[in-house]
Specification:
The protein has an eleven-stranded mixed sheet, with helices on both faces. A six-stranded mixed sheet has the order 17-18-22-19-20-21, sandwiched between helices. It has a five-stranded mixed sheet with strand order 1-5-4-3-2. The protein is globular and about 75 Å long. Helix 5 packs across helix 12, helix 14 crosses helix 15 (416-429) and helix 16 (443-453) packs across helix 17 (482-491). The N and C termini lie far apart (67 Å). It is α/β, with parallel strands linked by helices. It binds ligand UAG, adenosine-5'-triphosphate, 2,6-diaminopimelic acid and magnesium ion. Residues 112-113, 134-135, 150, 175 line the site of magnesium ion. The site of magnesium ion has 6 residues, from helix 5.
């Protein structure tokens, strides 16, 4: 593709050098630039992509996208905002794949991954060919691809969309993080439906305040338009959890048609009579589209919300409620979410991805309700992430668990002891007796200790890492899977 074809997508731009330069790929990381690449110099949080222009040229880049003229002998497309240009040009370069996929995006602090899995199952059972992008992996056409975060940057995202289209995928279901919204990673992406799960404390390191975090999430709904209302296929929808107070703000912001769900408040999809057991969760569903009993294999009241969110998204796709319910009832679980680890033991061991105060409280409440004995909770908090959540999670663990083992969860560049002390300050503020908790920095030792302590009927909850298969310490990813480590610990327990 010629540079000027790409440049024509932007109103404000100027070209220095050859407008007909032949572009054979796009790159925003100089280390990935190739012969013929158009290299985008992005301003970053740690660095500035303009500093890597020379490296990109050395690797054969055909032209640069820059925010200012660089003193380099290469064609340059100068734009006011290189990040915005990347999103818009990547969309064009790959042939506007999101217009074909019309993604269903799921945003919210907790429940995004789970909800995308539920929607995927409903769409697949209805005869579609859905693909998924999110925290655990990207998958479509029977293939699975590893992910390094939740929502890829605009270039990677548009590339995935294009591959999905080429593979015959007909709808994409994706997690949309607040970071992605803030950084314009989904700019240029034409969503059909935006699903909101909930908003509770997390990521204050990045957003600074809950108001700013809410504003970032709100961008998703404010950008959804309904300008093609005459053609039903072109409509857009917002599916909102009305038990979360911010939903009414999002409803006001969006031009899309809204569908509401909830348990406590009146909603178009409303659950009542929720009962949970170790075998699953049941509820009565009353809705604009009919009433029915729903029996999920998924455990936890929070999964009722995820199920309602998925039903809402499915209704926007025109799928009959009874068919969606039948699909949901078949889902045995989502990897690393309330996932039991069984090796024939007389106590339960559950691995879960709760890594926020609300997530931890929800899952602890659930396991407490199910336990015949004590609840032993193993958890930590990520390094280089929201520090404010650490003492809160300590306090929550103190409130719901009978024994707490504080450990490491991806300390990254922080001192694991300091992170544990932040959590401990929350435990102490809850006046927990010293014998009720212990700090064990080595996560394997922490899991082994919890398993050693368990008696028949107890539940060991290992929270925070879920599906993760690594422990990040000082820039190194060490192999670590809570589920495998727990299984080994159960098998090698002394009695
Ligand atoms: C804070 C944040 O979001 N940072 C993202 C950002 O990195 P950055 O701005 O720090 O990049 P930088 O290191 O300053 O580099 C600036 C530019 O120079 C380029 N560069 C850099 C080095 C080099 O040798 N050559 C080169 O060209 C970089 O490619 C980049 O374009 O842009 C990068 C490329 O898009 C992202 O990978 C990176 O995510 C980092 C890894 C991250 O940890 N992000 C987390 C916080 C995140 O986004 N999490 C959410 C999940 C939240 C949830 O689930 O609720 C997510 O969606 O994943
Ligand atoms: N609807 C919900 N409300 C509150 N907590 C939930 C909900 N759904 C799941 N959880 C809890 O949050 C954890 C993470 O769930 P999930 O992975 O689905 O969320 P996520 O939003 O994708 O998280 P991330 O931001 O890390 O991608 C689960 O393991 C569970 O403990
Ligand atoms: N999406 C979340 C995942 C946290 C998972 C936890 N294991 C950690 O590393 O803190 C984040 O990036 O904040
Ligand atoms: Mg997720």
């Amino acid at each position: 593709m010629r540079l000027n074809e790409l440049a024509s997508q932007l109103l404000i731009r100027s070209i220095i050098g050859d407008p007909a330069a032949n572009i054979t790929s796009l790159a925003s990381d100089s280390r990935l630039a190739q012969a013929g690449s158009l290299f985008f110099c992005l301003p970053g949080f740690k660095d500035d992509g303009h500093r890597f222009a020379i490296q990109a040229i050395e690797r054969g880049a055909a032209a640069l996208v820059t925010a200012r003229e660089l003193d380099l002998a290469i064609t340059q497309l100068i734009v006011p905002d290189t990040r915005q240009a990347l999103a818009m040009l990547a969309d064009h370069y790959y042939g506007r794949p999101s217009h074909r996929l019309r993604p269903i995006g799921v945003t919210g602090t907790n429940g995004k991954t789970t909800t995308t899995y539920l929607i995927e199952k409903i769409l697949a059972d209805a005869g579609g060919k859905p693909g998924v992008i999110g925290t655990i992996e990207t998958r479509y056409g029977g293939n699975h691809y590893p992910m390094s975060g939740t929502t890829p940057d605009a270039l990677e995202l548009q590339g995935i969309f294009k591959s999905m289209v080429d593979a015959g995928t007909d709808r994409c279901i994706m997690e949309v993080s607040s970071h992605a919204l803030e950084q314009g990673r989904v700019k240029g992406c034409r969503f059909r439906t935006a699903v909101f799960t909930n908003l509770t404390q997390d990521h204050l390191d990045y957003h600074g305040s809950m108001d700013a975090y809410e504003r970032a999430k709100g961008l998703f709904f404010s950008r959804l338009g309904n300008v093609y209302f005459d053609d039903p296929k072109q409509r857009t929808f917002a599916v909102l959890n009305v038990d979360d107070p911010v939903a009414s703000n999002f409803a006001k912001m969006t031009a899309a048609e809204t569908i509401t769900y909830g348990i406590d408040n009146d909603a178009q999809l409303r659950a009542s009579q929720v009962t949970i057991s170790a075998r699953g969760t049941s509820f009565k569903l009353d809705s604009f589209w009919g009433s029915r009993q729903v029996n999920l294999k998924l455990v936890g009241k929070f999964n009722v919300y995820n199920a309602l969110a998925a039903l809402g998204a499915a209704i926007c796709e025109g799928i009959e409620l009874k068919d969606s319910v039948r699909s949901l009832e078949q889902i045995a679980g989502v990897p690393g979410r309330v996932e039991p680890v069984n090796a024939g033991q007389a106590y339960a061991v559950i691995v879960d991805y709760a890594h926020t105060p609300d997530g931890l409280e929800n899952v602890l409440r659930t396991v407490k309700e199910l336990a015949n004995g004590r609840v032993i909770c193993v958890f930590g908090c990520g390094g280089d992430r929201d520090r404010a959540k650490r003492p809160i999670m300590g306090r929550i663990a103190a409130e719901y668990a009978d024994a707490v083992i504080v450990t490491s969860d991806n300390p990254r560049t922080e001192d694991p002891y300091l992170i544990m002390q932040h959590i401990e300050s929350g435990l102490l503020s809850a006046s927990v007796p010293r014998e009720k908790y212990v700090l064990v920095p080595d996560r394997r030792a922490a899991i082994e200790k919890a398993v050693e302590m368990a008696s028949p009927g107890d539940v060991v909850l290992i929270a925070g890492k879920g599906h993760e298969t690594y422990q990040l310490i000082d820039g190194v990813a060490y192999e670590f899977d809570d589920r495998l480590v727990a299984k080994e610990a159960i098998r090698s327990r002394s009695n």
